[in-house]
Design goal:
Elements (H helix, E strand, L loop, with lengths): L2 E2 L7 E5 H18 L2 E2 L9 H9 L5 E3 L2 H9 L4 E7 L5 H9 L3 E6 L2 H14 L4 E6 L13 H12 L3 E7 L10 H24 L6 E4 L2 H4 L10 E2 L9 H6 L9 E11 L4 E4 L3 H4 L16 E4 L4 E10 L4 E5 L7 H4 L5 E5 L3 H5 L4 E5 L4 E6 L5
Parallel strand pairs: 2-17, 3-10, 4-5, 5-6, 6-7, 7-8, 8-9, 9-10
Antiparallel strand pairs: 1-18, 2-11, 11-12, 11-16, 12-15, 13-14, 13-16, 14-15, 17-18
């Protein structure tokens, strides 16, 4: 028989299925309205049933952050996969093995050295890799700036080297630092325009660039138009989290991932309830610390997911968490949260919290919980 909130061992990572399905539908409907394909990033969930729900809603292909993810999802029947981390020579044999098994794996690069290594390895093995060039549209992380000469140098190294230049892709990760609709819309347009410009430069130089791939959860939900873009990638939207809430792209009621925990003790004089979810359950991610509202290690909710305003997971040791009130200490906390009380903690960063668990508990509308495996490692 399935478990329920009252019978699950804690701490447990919960997926609120009705919330998750609403999040999936919201994003897919938006991409459909904007006229682009949607390729969700599976690094958030690393969970086949979650990805299958995204594909069932209309997603076409997935994005992954590790070749281990690519191998697992391919084994589970998903073939159209982008490995969205810069390729290095040591990983080319893994990529080759997946392609030889029938996986339509695309890889990315942002340097001439990497492009030359890919082309050299591909020729030696008789394999034509499909490679996308990563474009930096916001100075946040990796990629070649749309106007740089290196963009064409990389394109030529791939094309002349016998590889398939599949497209240009970008990720506006700096959108996570924004919090107003106007700023998010401006970043979405900057991301779009930069990647489209890179693609146009490649084409003007006689190089193929069929795919123009952009995306982050904030920009995907903020873009007003995506002219010239062929597909969007986003990941954390499937669960959302407190960082995304502070950015302004979801409500607290949209956060589908939570950690079920049990009150195991009190420090009444300090206004603390001690729970069995420490940083080993929540992660050490304090992404809200620099935002307009700091949620400590997470927002405290009742077990059914109803937020308890003012109560946070304010501290965390390895296996112990501290629940307290953000204003004056709660002198009645032992009465409010008696020993054995079950609470749900919403995370700062869904990807980081999910990574602490080998499986999720998929919580249906009827209260039943079913375990779903989650991929670990590299």
């Amino acid at each position: 028989m399935p478990d329920s909130l009252s019978t699950l061992d804690t701490p447990a990572a919960l997926i609120d299925l009705p919330r998750m399905q609403r999040n999936i539908q919201r994003m897919q409907q938006r991409m459909d309205a904007l006229g682009v394909r949607f390729r969700p990033h599976a690094k958030t969930s690393k969970c086949t049933p979650v990805v299958q729900a995204q594909i069932a809603a209309g997603a076409r292909g997935i994005t992954v952050s590790t070749l281990k993810e690519a191998a697992q999802f391919f084994a589970d029947g998903i073939t159209d996969i982008v490995y969205a981390v810069g390729m290095v020579p040591a990983r080319l044999p893994q990529a080759l093995a997946l392609r030889r098994q029938g996986c339509d794996l695309k890889i990315i690069t942002d340097s001439v050295a990497s492009a030359q290594a890919i082309a050299g390895f591909g020729r030696a093995e008789g394999e034509v890799f499909e490679v996308w060039i990563e474009v930096d549209t916001d100075g946040h992380r990796s990629g070649i700036k749309p106007h740089e000469a290196a963009l064409l140098d990389v394109g030529r190294a791939l094309h002349a080297g016998g590889m398939r230049l599949g497209g240009a892709m970008t990720h506006a990760g700096s959108s996570y630092e924004l919090r107003t609709p106007a700023a998010l819309q401006a970043m979405a347009e900057q991301e779009r325009a930069g990647c489209v410009h890179a693609a146009e430069r490649l084409r003007a130089a006689g190089l193929p660039c069929p795919v123009v791939s952009v995306g982050s959860t904030p920009t995907a939900l903020s873009a007003t138009q995506l002219q010239g873009v062929t597909e969007v990638r986003a990941g954390v939207y499937v669960f959302f989290d407190l960082v995304m809430h502070n950015v302004g792209v979801c409500g607290i009621e949209d956060i589908a991932l939570g950690v079920l925990t049990t009150v195991i003790g009190h420090q009444a004089d300090k206004g603390w309830a001690i729970v069995d979810a420490g940083w080993m359950a929540m992660s050490r991610d304090r992404g809200t610390q620099k935002q307009q509202q700091d949620y400590g290690y997470g927002q405290v909710c009742s077990a059914d997911g109803t937020p308890l305003p003012g109560y946070l997971l304010s501290g965390a040791n390895q296996e112990h968490g501290i629940v307290s009130r953000s204003a004056a200490p709660d002198a009645d906390i032992a009465t409010r949260f008696p020993l054995g009380t079950r609470l749900r903690i919403l995370p700062n960063h869904a990807c980081a919290t999910g990574a602490q668990f080998p499986h999720y508990q998929a919580l249906a509308a009827d209260g039943s919980a079913t375990p779903w495996s989650r991929l670990h490692g590299w």
